């Protein structure tokens, strides 16, 4: 008998039900709230990779994660991939495979696993109200720590070359984790919120408040036409970094790009900005030793 976590409660379950739940959680498709999938969707194959679901043993029970790494024996730089608000769906898995094709050990933990399965919702408001707003930053930081331990223990991940990247909700988490774990060599945050929309006890600090204690170099990638992250907030973050004497982090703003410009499965996708952002991420990682 093992212990599973459902909606924040602990309940007994046998091994089969736990395995079934893991299989259901990391499904093969996209988040229902984002269907239909755009024609521009990119699909990366698993040739030359070891890719699939793994289990992370956290302090309060197992959670699923998606991991992709070159199948050739060796130790590879580790990149934590942090999900959008839509969970670890096919786009996030594909990002892991893209990174693995570049020679990284990429791992994306399901950071909402205890609170609920956001891939089943069809409305973004429901996702926030029923799941996302109930996810504590402290839990997220701990789960990402567990993913680092897992990568190291696998014998394939070189955690002395640790990076992190995240999208939307995961963009804010990227800034936050780089404060939490100073052993991260570099972070790349894709259009993550910089200023808190309101006070939330479970998310006590946002990047603009953390700039003074940020030591890890972070490159932020933002869109000029992002309706949820105005340029005013970007300038507040730049000012906060400057006031802290932080010359190692920076923010790039793409003209005319909306929120989620890297999400190739959504109408917001902008190929030129997405391609350049991907190059900027690779260059940033290499510059700071995540290679």
Task: List its salient traits.
8 helices, 10 strands, alpha/beta, eight-stranded mixed beta sheet, 291 residues, globular, two-stranded antiparallel ribbon, Rossmann fold
Secondary structure elements and their pairing?
Layout: E1 2-6, E2 9-13, H1 15-25, E3 49-58, E4 61-70, E5 76-82, H2 90-101, E6 105-109, H3 124-130, H4 137-153, E7 157-167, H5 169-180, E8 186-190, H6 207-210, E9 218-223, H7 231-243, E10 250-254, H8 271-287
Parallel strand pairs: 5-6, 5-7, 7-8, 8-9, 9-10
Antiparallel strand pairs: 1-2, 3-4, 4-6
Task: Describe this entry's structure for a reader.
The chain is α/β, with parallel strands linked by helices and 291 residues long. The protein has one domain: Alpha/Beta hydrolase fold, catalytic domain (Rossmann fold, 3-Layer(aba) Sandwich), CATH 3.40.50. The protein is built from eight helices and ten strands.
- Structural class designation: alpha/beta
Helicity range: 25-40%
Count of helical stretches: 8
Average per-residue pLDDT, rounded, comes to 89
Determine Rg (CA atoms, Å). Answer: 18 Å
Q: What order do the SSEs take from the amino end to the carboxyl end, as H and E?
A: EEHEEEHEHHEHEHEHEH
Main sheet strand line-up = 3-4-6-5-7-8-9-10
CATH class, named Alpha Beta
**Number of β-strand runs:** 10
Q: In the CATH hierarchy, what is the architecture at level 2?
A: 3-Layer(aba) Sandwich
Distance separating the two termini = 42 Å
Q: Report the biggest beta sheet as strand number plus sense, adding barrel if it closes.
A: 8 strands, mixed
Beta-strand residue percentage: 15-25%
Shape: globular
- What number of domains? 1
Here the CATH topology equals Rossmann fold
Contiguous low-pLDDT stretches (5 residues minimum) are 1-27
CATH superfamily caption: Alpha/Beta hydrolase fold, catalytic domain
């Amino acid at each position: 008998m093992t212990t599973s976590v459902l909606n924040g409660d602990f309940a007994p379950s046998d091994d089969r039900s736990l395995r079934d739940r893991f299989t259901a959680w990391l499904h093969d498709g996209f988040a229902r709230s984002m269907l239909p999938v755009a024609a521009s969707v990119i699909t990366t194959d698993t040739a030359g990779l070891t890719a699939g679901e793994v289990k992370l043993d956290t302090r309060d029970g197992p959670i699923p994660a998606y991991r992709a790494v070159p199948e050739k024996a060796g130790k590879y730089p580790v990149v934590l991939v942090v999900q959008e608000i839509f969970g670890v769906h096919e786009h996030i898995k594909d990002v892991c495979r893209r990174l693995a094709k570049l020679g990284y050990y990429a791992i994306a933990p399901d950071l909402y696993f205890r609170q609920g399965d956001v891939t089943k919702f069809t409305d973004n408001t429901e996702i926030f109200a029923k799941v996302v707003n109930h996810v504590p930053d402290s839990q997220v930081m701990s789960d990402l720590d567990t993913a680092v331990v897992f990568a190291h223990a696998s014998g394939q991940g070189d955690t002395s070359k640790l990076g992190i990247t995240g999208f939307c909700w995961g963009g804010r988490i990227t800034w936050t984790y780089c404060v939490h774990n100073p052993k991260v060599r570099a972070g790349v945050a894709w259009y993550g919120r910089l200023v808190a929309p309101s006070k939330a006890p479970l998310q006590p600090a946002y990047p603009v408040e953390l700039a003074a204690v940020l030591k890890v170099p972070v490159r932020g990638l933002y869109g000029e036409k992002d309706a949820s992250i105005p340029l005013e907030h970007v300038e507040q973050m730049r000012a906060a970094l400057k006031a802290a004497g932080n010359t190692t982090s920076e923010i790039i703003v793409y003209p005319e790009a909306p929120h989620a410009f890297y999400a190739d499965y959504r109408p917001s996708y902008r190929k030129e900005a997405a391609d350049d952002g991907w190059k900027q991420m690779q260059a940033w990682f290499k510059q700071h030793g995540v290679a």
